[in-house]
Protein 1
Amino acid sequence: MNKAEYLIIGFGKGGKTLAAALGKTSSVILFEQDPKMYGGTCINVACIPTKALVEQALLSAKLGGSYAERNARYASAIEKKGVLTGKLRDKNYHKLADNPNIQVIDGKASFVDARHVEANGIVYEGNKIIINTGARPFVPPLPGVNLPNIYVSETLLDRPSLPKHLLIVGGGYIGLEFASMYLNFGSEVTMLQVEPTFLAREDEEVAKAIEDDFAKRGLKLYKSVTTEGFEEKKGIVTTKALIEGKETLFESDAVLIATGRRPNIEGLALEKAGVALTERGAVKVNEHNQTSVPNIYAVGDVVGGLQFTYISLDDSRIVLAALNGGSRTSLNRGAVPYSVFIDPPFSRIGLSEKDARAKGEVLVGKIPANSIPKAHILGQSNGLLKVLVDPKSHEILGAHLYCAESHEMINLIKLAMDHHIPYEDLRDEIYTHPTMSEAFNDLFASVK
Ligand SMILES: Cc1cc2nc3c(=O)[nH]c(=O)nc-3n(C[C@H](O)[C@H](O)[C@H](O)COP(=O)(O)OP(=O)(O)OC[C@H]3O[C@@H](n4cnc5c(N)ncnc54)[C@H](O)[C@@H]3O)c2cc1C
């Protein structure tokens, strides 16, 4: 059957969630261009494998030892990660493909018109179409950028040997996660960032604490750098860069290009369906994730918003609401938290102190992570926790948690913010002990 109620292009988080929900009662055809990507970017080449390696890197750092010992642990971690992603891929595939209402087609899909999609030379018809094609690394067209030891995040994850020296081009969140992970595995790490300020969008005080800790851990960070190109001889890459007008050369056995990700729209022939794009080349959607063509929706990284798995998931809730008459839209999703899995992790929601002050009066609370007993138990006692509170409503305006387990703690703050809970409730709450979240007693008691 080449006809279904719903055609879904891409097996990502939003697409697979919609396929499972819609496939309970309706016919669905889902297209995936790469069988190694069933389940999407997150489980195959991004969140899950990187966080599995982050944990293995923490263990390896505790054990220490020679390069040979660390390299052996690294190779085993890469292998384990492959087993894990393989299991998840298989589970994801069967969750959809075993449903008789859902057909999974291996093939790259492109639009024929607003109701038809073509893959492998066959045309499929659908009443509604959902685009979930994700994003891919942006690789600047620099001389030598395709040399063998130059990687993007997903290819570096398959390198079986530990780089002795990793050079990272890009000072964003993905670059920082890799920097932290490879430092823990035992690589020397150099980072070249084009921006003059480290983590320029983050709260200044917290960004400074993170930068200082990275320096202590041995990260060589260069700011205001223009990377000019690469040469490689006998496995050693020479990176040419311009720093303060001076040409500088860096040698490393691996280079990671982490210069952002762009929406995957190439080859989709969106113009044939009349789907409009944003100025930045993403699929343009309204607050219901509906494109400029009423029967076509788009979810996840391809719409050019915040690039997180849980945003793609939330987009799928919004589309379900649009299809079934619910009230969820991207305008009522509340503040969006995020975590960067460095060591210790950094998590944030809401405004920075500077942005909060630009809007008016603000109360500030902060404590060092070394005041939290659990941080010592975990052996991660560095860090800083900071919150911003509205003096009138007593509601939380922002939280910047650079401490162990912050990726768990930030979700509690999101709940408090969404439900307009005054900060005193978190201050006076009972928390189990010893935990990182009990730090909210002291953190919110420090608000002034
Ligand atoms: C290294 C790294 C670490 C990350 N860590 C985290 C994290 O810890 N937490 C977090 O929340 N987010 C993280 N992210 C971001 C997260 O991975 C993405 O936001 C999320 O996976 C996007 O999912 P999606 O639903 O947009 O689509 P994707 O999961 O990207 O799926 C899109 C699918 O569409 C397929 N496709 C593309 N074009 C076509 C076509 N024409 N026809 C058929 N199929 C097609 C692709 O092959 C792909 O399988 C990370 C990203 C990276 C790169």
Protein 2
Amino acid sequence: MTGSVGIVGAGTMGAGIAQIAAVAGRKVLIADAVPGAAARAVDAIRDRVKTQVARGRLTVDPDALDLTALADPVGLAGCAVVIEAIIEDLAVKQALFAELEAVVADDTILASNTSSLSPTALAAGLAHPERLVGLHFFNPVPAMKLVEVISGLATAPEVADAAADLATAWGKTVVRSTATPGFIVNRIARPFYAEAWRLYEEHATVAQNIDAVLTGAGGFRMGPFALMDLIGHDVNEAVTRSVWAAFGYDPRFAPALAQRALVEAGWLGRKSGRGMYPADGAPAPAPAPAAPPPHAVTEHAVTGLVPPVGDAAPVGDAAPADEREREREPSPLRVLLDRAGVAIVAGDRDGAVSGGPVSGDTARLPGGLVELPSGALLTLSEGTTATALAAAFGRPVIVADRFLDPATATAAAIAPSDGCPPAAVTEAVGLLQAAGLDVYVIDDVPGLIVTRTVAMLANLAADALAGRVASEPDIDAAMRLGVNYPLGPLAWARRWGTGTVLRILDNLEDWYRDGHYRPSPLLRRAALAERGLAARESLLPSPGHSGREEGQ
Ligand SMILES: NC(=O)c1ccc[n+]([C@@H]2O[C@H](COP(=O)([O-])OP(=O)(O)OC[C@H]3O[C@@H](n4cnc5c(N)ncnc54)[C@H](O)[C@@H]3O)[C@@H](O)[C@H]2O)c1
């Protein structure tokens, strides 16, 4: 698409979009309701680009950028595309689009940078609703790679294609989404905050420890509380509430009372001086004090036992090829034992068989099972509490949280069963410290911190995929580029195994029984397929007979 680009709204986002369009060589016209705002934005853009050029990050002539400030959107009549980035208000945006439609050409594309309103609703009432598309940039626009192109019910495919081409030409990575609440990123990211709030409200541990585990064990760039303090709790909570309401108050998206209290107190985050953390920053996280590692541990149930799906019995030797393949991968616990360099005594390696030195249902612990010198067991979280496992095994159990990658993790969370002797906790702490990890001992909540957070991110990603909101690659790319996740949630589900993610969610839902953790039916289906077939290309089942005959 050639021709000039119109921008309405010269605030944070409008100025950012104007900047990247102008840097890409487009003629840009920018309008704002506040007199002088567009002109100030043009000056600010030139200054920012000058700084970028001075730092060697851009090679354009800042004075040659084709930027014009307008007093009135009527001046945008000749534009090939107009992108609005005004106040987030449906009625005000609809009025603007109606005003624009009266002056622009019939084929002018109208795009909205809305972060929460449906392009379907924005287009309602237009003479040509097919020309309106969502073009969701992320803040700060020049730095953030991702753009969500959102098709409303009426959006013409060629309009979405043209919007995607435009953003691509401006150096962005485009993902396509349908007009559903929160689009891709703001919908699937909710559990990153929600799980942190649930843990906080359950007093699993203090906020700074939750942040430390999600960064050090989960590989996230920032912890959820530090991130919410940066975003602003008012903004973050408003997005949560809007997605929650849009999904009919689905308990998966429910807001937290603790965050409501922060908003009511005016503790909005860095912008108001304090948020979850005081103005002078987060208190230092408090890992366990140094403990000596055990001399040797006994390793039972090495890894990769075929996980039962739902209530199905373990299939043992009937494990299909891809499951046996996974059996040969070292379990996360084995990776940590190797990092720790402790002596390993082989125990009951066929964990599917109960009895021997370890009684209880080891088949439910495919992440591995390690016996500490005190006799306590250490295992990887499957979404149950340590206390429930201790009841099954008849001895103390310590559950370890999962990791993005146990080979590179720098932190771990563990939860001991109720009544677990302190000496056993010390053994587990010493073992994981010997592996180079900061160890956080938290209360015995199921799914600890990373396990429940990632399982829920994968769950919502699977639901979005099932609803054809976006494709599998686009969902993962959106979460990596839009919110900097170290791995897309669907790729993460594959890494852990869809059966594992499903089991974690089933166990969490069984514990809380509030609907919050109910698994996506697609995850259940993919987990069954994972057991029954070789690994598939997509989590989605391959389309069956479409009823459409080739050549007719
Ligand atoms: N800030 C973000 O992080 C972010 C990220 C993605 C999307 N968005 C969306 O982008 C849009 C703009 O957000 P922002 O953060 O840039 O806001 P902002 O407050 O920084 O800027 C909005 C600008 O629009 C102008 N404006 C308001 N009503 C107008 C009207 N009727 N006509 C012309 N100009 C008008 C205001 O004067 C202001 O300059 C919103 O829809 C928001 O949801 C924001």
